[in-house]
Specification:
This protein is α+β, with helices and mostly antiparallel strands and about 260 residues long. Helices cover about 40% and strands about 15% of the residues. Among the domains are: about 130 residues, no CATH class; about 30 residues, no CATH class. Strand 5 and strand 6 form a beta hairpin. Helix 7 crosses helix 8. The longest helix has 25 residues. This is DEN5B protein.
């Protein structure tokens, strides 16, 4: 388990993640920092879900700044896949049995009333809500399907967010589609790693993803630096008033710290 979150139910806990594979194995000018990439791909750790939970894929980005000031950009798509290991499913069931036993013990220790009197004091509506809550936050190996989080990540020298996002989404669709893509998955990964060049300054580049072409553009020497992040998301996250305040602080050259979950 990652961190001390044993008070949470097992499905709400986070577990230690690890890098399963990365390609290429090493690049001289851009060495692979396994610990940093692992932490930044899954900042909250590995998580489990069931069919009752929301499992929509989520995309986020990160930035690694080295001591010499050089930067590396990472773009991550997190999704959930079904756990096929019987051992892991059994372990989750055991965690829930232990958790429920601890919760039941603490309730009985702190309450002098019996379970019969407790049940009689809950009306039918509350009982239904309680049952729904228990159903949502529970795991039964004979009834539920267990899913675990997994990431696919692209690490690039420039922040081509839109191009990376489109490629990762297409790759994810190919992985989860009932019908296989036109070519093996390895060929698309090999193509973007070894055959798609970095566009020269002031030029755009069109390359093919799994299903659709993808375009990325690089600013010229006398243009503003590449800013491929949608401003709409900034307005949605911060709101107009907060964004004006942040912009004012930038103009006044104040130190700014954004803190969030």
């Amino acid at each position: 388990v990652a961190g001390e979150n044993f008070d949470q139910s097992p499905l709400r806990r986070t577990f230690k993640s690890k890098v399963l594979a990365h390609y290429p194995q090493n690049i001289e000018w851009n060495p692979f920092d396994q610990d940093a990439v692992n932490m930044l791909c899954m900042p909250k750790g590995l998580s489990f879900r069931t069919q009752a939970d929301d499992r929509d894929p989520q995309l986020h980005s990160f930035l690694i700044t080295r001591e010499d000031g050089s930067r590396t950009y990472g773009f991550v798509l997190t999704f959930y896949e079904e756990v096929t290991s019987k051992q892991i499913c059994t372990a989750m069931q055991t965690l829930y049995q232990m958790h429920n036993a601890e919760q039941y013990g603490s309730v009985c220790a702190s309450s002098s009333c019996s379970m019969d009197s407790l049940a009689s004091s809950i009306d039918e509506g509350d009982a239904t809500s309680l049952a729904k809550l228990q159903r949502y936050n529970s795991y039964d190996i004979s009834r539920d399907t267990l899913y675990v989080s997994k990431c696919i990540c692209l690490i690039t020298p420039l922040p081509f967010m839109q191009a990376c996002k489109k490629f990762l989404i297409q790759l994810y669709k190919a992985v989860t589609s009932q019908q296989p893509p036109p070519l093996p998955l390895e060929s698309y990964i090999h193509n973007i790693l070894y055959e798609v060049p970095l566009p020269p300054p002031g030029r755009s580049l069109k390359f093919y993803g799994v299903y659709e072409p993808i375009i990325c553009q690089r600013p010229g020497p006398n243009e503003l630096p590449l800013s491929d992040y949608p401003l709409r998301e900034v307005f949605e996250l911060l709101g107009l008033e907060n964004l004006v305040q942040v912009f004012t602080c930038v103009l006044l050259e104040m130190q700014i710290l954004l803190y969030s979950q």
